[in-house]
Design goal:
160 residues, mainly beta, 14% helix
């Protein structure tokens, strides 16, 4: 019985320390921009229009453009602003192409910068409450867009 208890304690101890050892250094090894967070406005969430925000951490190379692919049931406006981690607005041009908004930065966003993208005056066409936004980045020195992933934003308001 003691052997079984010792074996169980050894297994628990190894499992408890394994995630810490595996997680060490992962953030420092990132060589591409990555999504930090995403949120919808919760103030008067039952009313149109809505606002959504994304945070992106630029790593590796400087970021020259960002493309946001919105779901078909949302209507983005050109009221998209970008700020750095100090809250300073970044000079950028927003171009709309259907459900895609491309943000081209006047000056590339340098690595190790966190930016916040605010999308205001967004209209919803359905009562869906889960939105999936696709993100792609254009990095300085590369000729192709790099997919960054899909951002999920839960919206608990309703359409009027």
């Amino acid at each position: 019985m003691k052997k079984l208890m010792y074996a169980g304690a050894l297994v628990l101890a190894s499992v408890a320390f394994a995630p810490t050892a595996q997680a060490a250094g992962i953030a420092g090894n990132t060589r591409v921009p990555h999504i930090v967070s995403a949120a919808g406005s919760m103030n008067n969430a039952r009313f149109q229009p809505k606002s959504y925000a994304l945070k992106l951490h630029v790593m590796g190379r400087a970021l020259s453009a960002l493309t946001i692919d919105a779901p078909e049931q949302l209507r983005l406006s050109q009221q998209i602003t970008v700020k750095d981690q100090a809250g300073k607005p970044l000079d950028a041009t927003v171009t709309m192409n259907g459900q895609k908004a491309t943000i081209a930065f006047a000056q590339p966003v340098e690595p190790d910068t966190t930016i916040q993208i605010n999308m205001d005056n967004v209209r919803t066409l359905t009562d869906d409450r889960i939105w999936l936004f696709g993100l792609e980045s254009r990095l300085v020195g590369l000729n192709a867009d790099i997919p960054l992933g899909v951002v999920r934003i839960d919206d608990y308001g309703t359409r009027l």
